[in-house]
C-alpha cells in the first residue's frame, strides 16, 4: 500500500454493484489515462498503457495531488487514490466546456450561472496555488459539473506538485507566450485562467475559429478579444489575467469580490423586470 493511499472502505454503499473496468464502460480516453464508469456513483482512472512509464507516472502524480489537496468544494471528489488507480465521484453533467455548449445552445445558461461558475473557477485555482500545485492545462474542459451544478477542478496528471516539472502545457487558446524552456508557473496558470473565464462568460474559447499560428501571434502582440465580454468588471479581470497584472489568483478573487454586490443587484433588477 502506498504511503499516500486514501480510500473509502469496500463496504461503503457507493461501492455496491461495482463493475470491473472493461472496454464497454470507458467514458473517456485522455492523454495519459482512461476513465471507466463502474456504477452510477464512481468512475475509475487507469493508465491508458500500463507499459508506458509516462502514463504510470501521470497517474501517480495525480494520485499524490488528490491526496495532498484533500476535500474542497471546488475540487473533484476523490474516493480512492493510489499508485494503481484513482476513483472519483461520477458527475452526471460532465465537463464544463461540454455543459456550456450543450446547455447554452438551448438558452439554459444565464448570466447568473456564468458569473457564479466563473467565481468558483477562480476559487479552485487560488486553492491549488495555495497548496503549491500548478495545474498546467487549465480550461473549461478540466472542470466537472456536479449534481448541484457547481464546478470541480480535475485532471491533475500533467500538473506540477511542489515545483516538480509539469508533463503538459496548455493548448494555444490558453497558452501564455513564453520561451520554449520556460516552465509552467503561477503566471502561466493565471493566463490560462483568463482564457477559461472567457470560455465561461462568452461560451467559446478565445479565437477558437483561428489557426493555432494566428492565435500565438495575436497573444504575443497582446491582442485579445476582450470586446466579446459584456460585463466591464469581468472584462477587466480577464484582461489583467492575460496581461500578467495579477501576482496570484487570490488577487483575481479579490477584484471580483468587489464586483459581486453590484453584479447581484444588476441581475436582480433584470429578473424583476422580466417577471414584471
From TrEMBL:
GO cellular component annotations of the record: nucleus
Top-level lineage group: Eukaryota
PROSITE patterns recorded: PROTEIN_KINASE_DOM
Transferase is among the record's keywords: yes
Keywords on record: ATP-binding, Kinase, Nucleotide-binding, Serine/threonine-protein kinase, Transferase
A molecular function GO annotation: ATP binding
Span of domain Protein kinase: 1-276
Pfam families assigned: PK_Tyr_Ser-Thr
Protein name as it appears in the record: Protein kinase domain-containing protein
Amino acid at each position: 500500500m502506498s504511503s499516500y493511499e486514501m480510500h473509502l472502505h469496500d463496504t461503503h454503499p457507493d461501492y455496491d454493484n461495482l463493475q470491473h473496468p472493461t472496454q464497454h464502460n470507458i467514458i473517456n480516453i485522455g492523454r495519459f489515462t482512461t476513465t471507466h464508469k463502474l456504477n452510477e456513483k464512481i468512475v475509475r482512472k487507469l493508465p491508458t498503457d500500463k507499459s508506458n512509464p509516462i502514463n504510470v507516472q501521470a497517474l501517480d502524480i495525480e494520485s499524490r495531488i488528490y491526496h495532498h489537496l484533500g476535500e474542497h468544494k471546488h475540487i473533484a471528489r476523490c474516493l480512492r487514490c493510489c499508485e494503481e488507480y484513482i476513483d472519483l465521484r461520477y458527475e452526471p453533467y460532465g465537463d464544463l466546456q461540454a455543459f456550456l455548449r450543450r446547455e447554452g445552445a438551448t438558452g439554459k445558461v444565464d448570466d447568473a450561472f456564468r458569473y457564479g461558475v466563473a467565481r468558483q473557477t477562480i476559487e479552485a485555482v487560488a486553492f491549488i496555488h495555495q497548496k503549491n500545485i500548478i495545474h498546467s492545462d487549465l480550461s473549461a474542459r478540466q472542470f466537472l459539473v456536479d449534481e448541484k451544478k457547481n464546478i470541480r477542478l480535475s485532471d491533475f496528471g500533467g500538473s506540477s506538485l511542489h515545483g516538480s516539472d509539469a508533463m503538459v502545457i496548455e493548448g494555444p487558446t490558453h497558452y501564455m507566450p513564453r520561451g520554449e524552456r520556460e516552465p509552467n508557473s503561477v503566471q502561466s496558470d493565471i493566463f490560462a485562467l483568463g482564457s477559461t473565464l472567457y470560455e465561461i462568460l462568452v461560451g467559446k474559447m478565445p479565437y477558437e475559429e483561428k489557426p493555432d499560428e494566428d492565435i500565438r501571434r495575436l497573444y504575443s502582440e497582446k491582442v485579445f478579444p476582450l470586446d466579446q465580454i459584456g460585463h466591464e468588471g469581468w472584462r477587466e479581470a480577464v484582461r489583467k489575467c492575460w496581461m500578467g497584472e495579477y501576482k496570484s489568483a487570490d488577487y483575481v478573487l479579490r477584484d471580483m469580490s468587489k464586483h459581486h454586490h453590484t453584479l447581484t443587484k444588476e441581475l436582480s433588477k433584470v429578473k424583476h423586470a422580466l417577471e414584471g
